[in-house]
Amino acid sequence: MTDITIDGHRIGVLFSDTEIASRVKAIAIEIAALKPANLLVVPILKGSFVFAADLIRAMHHAGLSPEVDFMILSSYRKSQKSSGQVNVLRDIETDVKGRDVLLIDDILESGRTLAFAKDLLNARGARSTLTAVLLNKPGHLAAHISADFQGFVCPDKFVVGYGMDMAHQFRELPFVGHVIPATGI
Ligand code: IMP
Ligand code: MG
Fold it and tell me: Are 132 and 103 in contact (CB under 8 A)?
């Protein structure tokens, strides 16, 4: 697929908007098949906001009517490498006791972010905590976790778009791409 150039950065398309839309729909159908009870969806911001926005609407079409609350966790900060420490920047306001919870994140990489969120909600008494990620980037797992639902296996590249950023840039791209390092000179 063709590359595009934004602000002098070359970006290669990894997953197109139509490929993403069909995976999102399939995941919503898988989730609905589990017939979750009193479902609470918790997108982990910021990177998952576009995926979550599409997934909850696909969940509606699949017959679900979840509540949605948001958590902002930070482990990346401005660098491209995980710091290893997860911070709660914004917590949910909803009581999860006895409820089925679906955590939504953009990428599962070390797994620290999702494992942290899952442990937290389980400790608060969630009945079950399932996880949905758009991308699974294998090879870097540092926590005991796997995603219950995933969109795509992601190559080991730093990716942007569809909500994901590089220093807060490129979230608006409707596809998932990777920034192609400049060569030569
Ligand atoms: P983990 O805690 O190492 O699994 O990291 C997951 C988080 O790191 C994701 O929620 C993303 O926000 C961020 N992340 C990991 N890889 C990338 C990437 O290639 N591009 C943008 N963000 C990433
Ligand atoms: Mg994130």
Answer: yes
Q: Is residue 185 part of a domain?
A: no
Q: Which residue has the higher pLDDT, 78 or 62?
A: 62
Three-state DSSP class for residue 139 = coil
What is the average pLDDT across 78-85?
Answer: 63
Higher per-residue pLDDT: 184 or 169: 169
d(CA 99, CA 23): 26
Residue 137 CA: nearest ligand 1 atom is: 16
- Give ligand 1 pocket residues (Cβ under 6 A): 47, 75-76, 82, 105-113, 158-159, 164
Domains held by the chain: number: 1
Q: Looking at residue 79, what is its pLDDT?
A: 55
CATH code (residue 55): 3.40.50.2020
pLDDT at 4 over 70: yes
With pLDDT > 90 as the criterion, what percentage of the chain qualifies? 89
Counting ligand 1 atoms within 8 A of each CB, the residue from 164, 166, 170, 176 with the most, and so the one to mutate, is: 164
26 touches 153 (CB < 8 A): no
Which residues span the domain enclosing 118? 4-180
C-alpha 76/C-alpha 106 separation (Å) is: 13
CA distance 33 to 129: 16
